[in-house]
Amino acid sequence: MKKIYWTLGTFFIGVLLISISCDDNSRSLGDFRIDIATVVPVGDNTYSLLLDNGKQLWPAATAVNITPSDNQRVFLNYTILSDEMGGFDHYIKVNDMWKILTKQAMELNAENEDSIGHDPVRINHIWVGGDYLNVSFMFNYGGVKPHAINLVENMLSSGIATNVVPLEFRHNSYDSPNTRLYEGFVCFDLRPMRVEDADSINLSIQVKEWASDQVGMIENKIYDVVYRYNQSALSTEAVMPIPVISSSEYY
Question: Which of 42, 52, 135, 137 has the fewest CB atoms within 10 Å of its CB?
Fold first, then answer.
């Protein structure tokens, strides 16, 4: 996998906006799009790709060698080769692919409440796409050791409505120096949170953030999102950015 760095951020955000807006029927091997996708293994070193809007892609050609694993989220640079064919919405050429840190939520309890971390971040965008909570965030990194990023279900919270899942986005910097601001991206699998006899759940996500109007001040912000099991379309609440930092700085 290639590693791309934060200094290219403006370029990739521009590319994404162009690829979203240019949705016509023309086909050119020089055209490409960038989307978030989930890898779906279908055999030995064979896979398809599922976009958050529900479209299924078959990599008929690829410039990337990967070992597919279940539920791996990726940023996908691809060229459309055909319309619907062979049960897939498009056959594509994979131009490049970058793995996204993909995790399960954890249970926050009395035993791990302190070790899970309390360091602040800044949220750029947070939304549900497919069956995942997608989070683009900023964090200070000093290069000492990788930071820990987690989504935790707060079993210690009280006063939360019964139809709301209380979650917290947690960051542990392990007391490393805060020398530079980086952009990170992580996806959390929401399927274990599904409730029987319902088609959606409400998520209340608390995040410890730097205050936007007071330097050095910290505040707790709440992000309320809805996870609809049978609705895989991308949220229209935020424009999806392309984070371009290697995830070797956090896990």
Answer: 42
List pLDDT tens digits, range 105-156. Answer: 999 888 888 789 999 999 999 999 989 999 999 998 887 788 899 999 987 7
Rounded distance, CA 243 to CA 100, Å? 10
Write down the domain spans for the chain. Answer: 6-99, 102-249
- The separation between CA 69 and the C-alpha centre of its own chain, rounded to angstroms, equals 16
Class of domain 6-99: mainly beta
What class, spelled out in words, does domain 102-249 have in CATH? mainly beta
SS3 64: coil
Q: What letter represents residue 195's amino acid?
A: V
Helix and strand numbers, DSSP H then E, in the chain:
1, 13
